[in-house]
Amino acid sequence: xxxxxxxxxxxxxxxxxxxxxxxxxxxxxxxxxxxxxxxxxxxxxxxxxxxxxxxxxxxxxxxxxxxxxxxxxxxxxxxxxxxxxxxxxxxxxxxxxxxxxxxxxxxxxxxxxxxxxxxxxxxxxxxxxxxxxxxxxxxxxxxxxxxxxxxxxxxxxxxxxxxxxxxxxxxxxxxxxxxxxxxxxxxxxxxxxxxxxxxxxxxxxxxxxxxxxxxxxxxxxxxxxxxxxxxxxxxxxxxxxxxxxxxxxxxxxxxxxxxxxxxxxxxxxxxxxxxxxxxxxxxxxxxxxxxxxxxxxxxxxxxxxxxxxxxxxxxxxxxxxxxxxxxxxxxxxxxxxxxxxxxxxxxxxxxxxxxxxxxxxxxxxxxxxxxxxxxxxxxxxxxxxxxxxxxxxxxxxxxxxxx
Length: 403
Ligand SMILES: Cc1ncc(COP(=O)(O)O)c(C=O)c1O
Fold this sequence. Notes:
The protein is of the alpha/beta class.
């Protein structure tokens, strides 16, 4: 057995991406006990940093230990009880994931769908809200499977108007596309580190409005063994212990009521991811992702590739291009990886084998990463039988950078 020594890679797919070396360094810091004053201070700082990242004043801003999907499960299982109606916006694979998780919570799931490559029309959402009268509207902001970014401000207004809670999965979009938790009236949002936050997967930042907290606190059940006199036993018990956000909030809150053992190294990572973003400034980080996304788009189009999906609603940090007819998409991906150490993605379901997804996000939203990817892609496309104009991709991207 050899020591872990992975090959060098430039991860330019839909995420995960290369973690910022500062995040990896933070993860190697020494461990402290979970109630050590140093640890609880880091937890407090992490909460405050993520309030800035989510753009919220929500006190209930914490980490769920697990990948982004853990954050989604925690939010949905804690908010939804069997029989609750939920309206899910589906415009790609991750909208389907929300319906799958909501159904497992025993909710009555309704959906508004848009074709892959488009986003959902808010007017349709309002009609569906009036028809189904849900407790919760659930949506993804940036669905990496299609690279579309759902505008949320109007959805938030609709939810306020009809007194419905709004949940958003911002895993793939946070930090690289504008997100205003309070400004847009989002009640619950969850994320992951492995996209624009420049970390590894394994921690899920989550924030809850006071309305969402009231719903969750209405289902508080303190575990036998740590329960004290006067502890509430309210409502329908949340169906998961690990993802019971009422208990997770008590663990992060002043009572520090024992639940899981916080994943210390992941907390260091999440802390450093947010610290770096806040130091850069959220608006500057979004502008950086927009710039490198535009350069990448100009470059791939100059290489003769065709953008997939509605250009107006493209995420800044990942784009999809159609695999040219007659080209073996997997052979191109393999050659990029084998000869240049560069990873790009394909997609899922109806788009599997139809598009490549190329990302420029987090630590890899950088000029050198974009230019090197375009240079390598040109060579690999030529090898695959295409005739890209020599140097055209890099030149078009450089023009974007030249402004
Ligand atoms: C929009 C979105 N939601 C959820 C997930 C799931 O994240 P994880 O694999 O970290 O559980 C992803 C992963 O790509 C994603 O892009």
